Automatic annotation (TrEMBL):
Origin species: Acidithiobacillus caldus (strain SM-1)
Residue span, EAL domain: 336-590
GO molecular function terms listed in the Swiss-Prot or TrEMBL record: cyclic-guanylate-specific phosphodiesterase activity; heme binding; oxygen binding
Full protein name: EAL domain-containing protein
Signal peptide feature range: none
Coiled-coil region: none
Length: 690
C-alpha cells in the first residue's frame, strides 16, 4: 500500500500546483453547490436516506459544510500526500462509524469527477489543462477512496478481534465482577463505543448496575441515579422500561435505538445522555441454557444509528454468543445496587474492614483449637455489613486488598490472644485466585518473615465451592506453605465444584464439611447426616482432620461428634465474636458429648447410623455379631423423649431382626420402621419446641 502511495507523489506538490491553481477558483466555488446536489442525490437512495434521516437539522447542515471543505482540500494546489492520507483516514473513520457505505462513496466521487469535468468544459478551460486537472483529481479521488475503504476494514477487524479476545480471556476470570470488567475493558476502546455497562434486575424489576465503564457512561449513570430511583425497569408500563434494556429483557433479543434524543420512550434519561454525548445504544441479553435472560450488556455510542450498521449488527450477535458460552459457569447472586457497590468499594479502600472471629472447637474436649477470621465492612451508619453482600461485587484486586487487610489484622489478633492463653490458630479464607497470583504469596510470606505470625499459628482455608486453578505454581505454593507449617484447610467440602480428588492430591491438613448439610431443614436427617458420615470417613482415610460447619444446636453438635468429626463450628458454639470478647467466651465455654449414649434424638440417629454400619461389617462373623448386639442393647436410653414414645419396644424389634443378618428381609423391614419412628420423633420434638 505504501509503495502505491509513493507512486502518487506526482499528483501533489509543485508538479501539479499550476494545474490546480488555475482550476481551484472555479471548482472551489462549485464545491458548495456540489455538496448540496450530492446530498439531494443521496436522499433518493434508500440506504443513504436512512443514514441521513438519523441526523437532526444542525448535524445535517454541518455534514454538508464539512463535505464542501473536504472537496476544496482535494483540489488544493498546496495539498501534500501525507496531509491527504491523514485527512482521508479521518474522513474514512467518520464514514465507517456513521454508516456511509463504500459504494455510496464511489458513486459520490464519480459524480464529483463528472461535475468537475462539466464545469471545466463549460467555462472554456483548454482541453490540455482540463485533462491534466481531471487526471490528477481522479488519482487523488482514487487514493482517497482506497484509504477510506482501508479504514472501514480496520474498524471492522478491531470489533472482530474484541469478540475473539473476550472469548479467549473469559476462562481465566476468577469472579463474575472480573468477567464483567474484562468485557467492558475490551469493548470501550473500540472506535464508535462511548462506554458500556452490565445490569440485572432485582426482585422489584429494577435493573441494578453491576459494572460500568469510566468516562461518559459512568457520568451518565451517576447523573440519572442522582435524581431518579432507577435507570431501567423490566416493565413496559414503566417509562424507564420502554427503552432497549427493558425490551431486550422482555423479548430475549438484542434491542437498540438509533438516536436517544429522538426516542420518546427514553424521556426519563435522554436529556442526560444528550448532555454527555451519548447518541445511540444497544442492549444485549445474555441468556441461560433455558433461553432466560441473566444479564443485559448495554453499549453506548456517540454516533447516531451506530448499532444499526451491518458490521455492528454482526458484532452484537457474535458478542452475545461468545459471552453466553463463557459466562454461564459463574454463580449469580442477588443483584446489588449501584450505590451499594460504590459504598462497598469506598469502605474497602478506606480500610473500614473489621474482622470477627468464630470459634472452632474440639468435639471431644470442647477446647478452642482455632478462630476463623471473618471480614465485615463498617458502614457509614456504624453498622457491620455482612460478606454475602459485598464479596459478590468484589473483583480480584478487591479480594487481594481484603486479604492483605485480613492478614494484618490476624497477626495483631494472634499477639493479643497469645497474651490471654490462646494456643490455637487463626484461620483466613484464601480466594482460589490466590493460588495462582504471586501477590497473595508475597503477602503471606512477608507477614510470616516479619515475625508477626508463626506458620503454626496460621490456617488458610480454600473454598471448594469455587474452581481451584490447576497449575504448577499452585502445587509448589501449597507444598511450600505446608512444609513451613501453615495449616491448610479445604473449605465447604461438598458444596459444589467438587473434587474429592483434591483431598488426596493437594496437601490439605483439614477438610470442612459445608454447613448446608446440617443447617436448616432436617426433615431428611438420614440423608444429611449420611453425607457427613461418608465424607468424614473419606477424609480420615486420607489423613485429614474433619470440621463440621453450621452446628446450630446441641443435637447437631452431638451427631457430628458421633459420626467422627474432629472439630465443630456454628452458632451453638458461638457466633462470630469481636476480638476482645474471645478470652471471656473461652473461659466459660464447655461441652460434654457422650458418643456412646447420646442425649438427643439427632445424636441417637447418628449413633444408630454408626451402629448399622458396624452391623453390616459383622455379617460374616456370627460370633462377633451376637456379642455386638448384646453390647449395644441400650443405645438411646439417655433420651427421655424417645422413651416416652415407645423407643424401647421398637429398638428391641430392630435388635431381634438384626440377628437374621443386615441383608435379610426381616431386618430391612425393621430398619425401615425404626428409621421412620426416629424421623417422626424428630418432627414431634420440633413441634413441641416451637
Amino acid at each position: 500500500m505504501e509503495s502505491s502511495w509513493e507512486d502518487l507523489e506526482e499528483v501533489y506538490g509543485e508538479r501539479v500546483e499550476a494545474a490546480f491553481s488555475a482550476a481551484q477558483r472555479l471548482l472551489g466555488n462549485g464545491a458548495a453547490a456540489f455538496a448540496q446536489e450530492f446530498y439531494h442525490h443521496l436522499l433518493e437512495e434508500d440506504r443513504a436516506r436512512t443514514i441521513l434521516g438519523r441526523l437532526d437539522r444542525t448535524a445535517y447542515e454541518a455534514l454538508q459544510r464539512n463535505q464542501e471543505r473536504y472537496l476544496q482540500m482535494l483540489i488544493s494546489p498546496a495539498l501534500e500526500l501525507a496531509e491527504h492520507v491523514t485527512h482521508a483516514r479521518n474522513v474514512g473513520r467518520i464514514h465507517a462509524l456513521s454508516g456511509v457505505e463504500n459504494t455510496l462513496l464511489a458513486d459520490a466521487y464519480s459524480l464529483y469527477h463528472s461535475r468537475a469535468a462539466r464545469l471545466l468544459r463549460e467555462h472554456g478551460t483548454p482541453d490540455r489543462e482540463a485533462d491534466s486537472v481531471l487526471y490528477h483529481l481522479s488519482r487523488r479521488l482514487a487514493l482517497d477512496l482506497q484509504i477510506q475503504i482501508e479504514c472501514y476494514r480496520e474498524i471492522e477487524q478491531s470489533f472482530q478481534n474484541a469478540v475473539l479476545n473476550i472469548g479467549g480471556e473469559m476462562s481465566s476470570q476468577r469472579t463474575l465482577t472480573d468477567a464483567y470488567l474484562r468485557i467492558i475493558e475490551r469493548l470501550t476502546p473500540l472506535d464508535g463505543i462511548a462506554g458500556a455497562l452490565v445490569t440485572r434486575p432485582d426482585t422489584e424489576g429494577i435493573f441494578q448496575i453491576e459494572a460500568v465503564s469510566s468516562g461518559p457512561v459512568r457520568l451518565f449513570v451517576d447523573d440519572v441515579l442522582r435524581d431518579h430511583r432507577q435507570l431501567f425497569h423490566i416493565s413496559a408500563r414503566d417509562p424507564s422500561g420502554q427503552g432497549p434494556v427493558g425490551k431486550a429483557w422482555r423479548n430475549r433479543a438484542i434491542a437498540w435505538i438509533d438516536r436517544c434524543s429522538g426516542d420518546s420512550d427514553l424521556s426519563v434519561w435522554k436529556e442526560a445522555a444528550s448532555r454527555l454525548g451519548i447518541v445511540s445504544a444497544a442492549a444485549i441479553p445474555v441468556l441461560d441454557v433455558d433461553d432466560q435472560p441473566l444479564i443485559i450488556l448495554v453499549l453506548y455510542s456517540p454516533w447516531p444509528g451506530f448499532f444499526s450498521l451491518s458490521f455492528t449488527q454482526t458484532f452484537l450477535n457474535n458478542l452475545q454468543n461468545i459471552i453466553q458460552l463463557s459466562i454461564l459457569r459463574f454463580r449469580y447472586r442477588r443483584p446489588v445496587s449501584y450505590q451499594d457497590r460504590q459504598l462497598y468499594h469506598t469502605l474497602l479502600i478506606d480500610e473500614k474492614v473489621e474482622m470477627l472471629y468464630q470459634p472452632i472447637v474440639d468435639l471431644r474436649t470442647g477446647a478452642l483449637v482455632k478462630l476463623e477470621a471473618l471480614a465485615r465492612l463498617r458502614g457509614t451508619d456504624g453498622r457491620l455489613i455482612a460478606p454475602n453482600l459485598f464479596l459478590p461485587v468484589f473483583d480480584s484486586s478487591d479480594l487481594l486488598r481484603l486479604f492483605h487487610v485480613g492478614m494484618r489484622q490476624a497477626a495483631m489478633a494472634i499477639s493479643f490472644l497469645t497474651d490471654h492463653g490462646f494456643t490455637g490458630r487463626i484461620s483466613l479464607n484464601l480466594p482460589p485466585q490466590g493460588l495462582e497470583d504471586p501477590r497473595f504469596r508475597d503477602i503471606i510470606l512477608k507477614t510470616i518473615e516479619s515475625g508477626e505470625i508463626e506458620p503454626r499459628q496460621l490456617c488458610l482455608e480454600i473454598l471448594e465451592s469455587e474452581e481451584i486453578p490447576d497449575s504448577s505454581f499452585r502445587d509448589g505454593f501449597l507444598d511450600y506453605l505446608h512444609d513451613l507449617g501453615v495449616w491448610l484447610a479445604l473449605d465447604d467440602l461438598g458444596s459444589g465444584h467438587a473434587t474429592l480428588l483434591r483431598m488426596g492430591s493437594l496437601p490439605f491438613d483439614e477438610v470442612k464439611i459445608d454447613q448446608s448439610f446440617v443447617r436448616g431443614d432436617m426433615q431428611r436427617p438420614f440423608q444429611k447426616l449420611g453425607f457427613i458420615q461418608h465424607l468424614a470417613r473419606l477424609a480420615h482415610d486420607l489423613g485429614n482432620v474433619v470440621t463440621v460447619e453450621g452446628l446450630e444446636d446441641y443435637g447437631l453438635l452431638e451427631a457430628a461428634a458421633v459420626l467422627g468429626a474432629d472439630y465443630g463450628q456454628g452458632y451453638f458454639i458461638a457466633r462470630p465474636l469481636a476480638l476482645d470478647a474471645v478470652p471471656a467466651w473461652q473461659k466459660q465455654f464447655a461441652i460434654d458429648v457422650d458418643k456412646v449414649n447420646p442425649g438427643t434424638v439427632t445424636g441417637v440417629i447418628a449413633s444408630y447410623m454408626e451402629w448399622d454400619l458396624q452391623l453390616h461389617c459383622m455379617e460374616r462373623t456370627p460370633e462377633l455379631l451376637a456379642q455386638f448386639l448384646i453390647s449395644s442393647a441400650n443405645f438411646g436410653e439417655n433420651v427421655t423423649f424417645l422413651r416416652r414414645h415407645g423407643f424401647a419396644r421398637i429398638r428391641e424389634e430392630l435388635l431381634q431382626a438384626a440377628r437374621s443378618g443386615a441383608r435379610s428381609t426381616v431386618y430391612k423391614e425393621a430398619k425401615s420402621k425404626f428409621e421412620s419412628f426416629l424421623v417422626q420423633c424428630m418432627d414431634r420434638q420440633a413441634l413441641a419446641g416451637s
